[in-house]
Amino acid sequence: MNETYSLKEKWRQFLAVLLPILISQLALFSMTFADTIMSGHASPTDLAGVAIGASLWTPVQAGLTGILMAVMPMVAQMVGAGKKDQVPYTVMQALYLSVGIAVGVIIVGGLVLDPILNWMQLEPVVRTIARGFLHAIAIGIIPMFLYTVLRCFIDALGQTRVTMFITLLSLPINVLLNYALIFGNFGLPRLGGIGAGLASGITYWCILLITLFVVNRVHPFVEFGLFTKFHRISMKAWNELLKLGLPIGFSIFCEVSIFAAVTLFMSEYSTITIAAHQAAMNFASFLYMVPLSISMSLTIVVGFEVGAKRFRDAKQYSYLGIGIALGIALLFGISLLMFSKQVAGFYTTDIEVLELAQHFLVYSILFLISDAVAAPIQGVLRGYKDVTIPFIVALISYWVIGLPLGYILAKFTSLAAFGYWIGLITGLAAGAIFLFGRLLSLQKRMIRSHS
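Structure tokens predicted for Probable multidrug resistance protein NorM:
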């Protein structure tokens, strides 16, 4: 990554990092998108089963991979400070840690899954599909976590096009496996929603194998020699990774799990309501890939500038990213108002699900605007390695403000299921306001101390 000073050059540099990350995130999410859409066309019960399974797995997956995202600001700051020799050791320790985390989640998940599903009191068919979906996707947990570390290493070097190509190569594999396993094509059994989980699990192995080939054969990654020297497991290094990674992971978990919690609360409503909620939530999550990609890009460019002690440049990148995110969110919101029926039609042909999903989609517009502020700021703060306060903000805004308010509105007003969405929107907006205040304070302090 080159040194840049003019705003025009920063714009170009930021877009060069952002666009491949955005394409990668959209392609990665397209796997979940395809799982949901194709399961929905299998049957409403398959869609509901995948919705429940995904609502349990997604917050766990997001939170734990969030811990491993500590690699990105660490490597970015090392490169910015000219300490490239420290990178291989850090990446290898993160790979060891990722395997430990993956094995832990498989063991714990196997112990608690059935009690959780029994507590939810689902329709028997939906429960069977949700359980099978989670068992199937578990085969991809270890490769997914290993890939997360390697991707953070690649992206932190500014080589975001590489992860874009890797992801684009894997996407057709996932769609083809979905087609085969969900609907029983090519002589394979018709597994419905369970097939969606199996397809994703196999795809994660494909992504890992492609990535391992790249970091061992392609420049500039091969120059780091990640696997040329053996490094023992270091508890000290793990402690450094966890000190930065745990607040990141918990912050992501707080945000993602609140959406999962709402889906679980939705289980008291009809299968039609669950399916409509999941369709709208899935599309809103798809659009969230834009502010999330901007957030990841800001972690890289801000981390690089902070490592080089260029704090005014870091500040300019911050507001450039937030401005782009807000502009895109407004365009998405207007488009969703105009085409909510067409969007709902992607997920289902059932008239009742279609009409209810349209109502949920209108509420999701407010998600977009709050996320357009909060997500980029989180990325900026990670670039500064400022992660503890954002975690506290996430905990309070989502779990102290958002979910309790949603529960009250759903239970004690005529809003019913829509009350949960209003609670979520309120929590997201509160989080965005708190994080913006933290960003202003941090940047003033950094610039003042180095001026």
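The chain has two domains: 1-233, 247-450.
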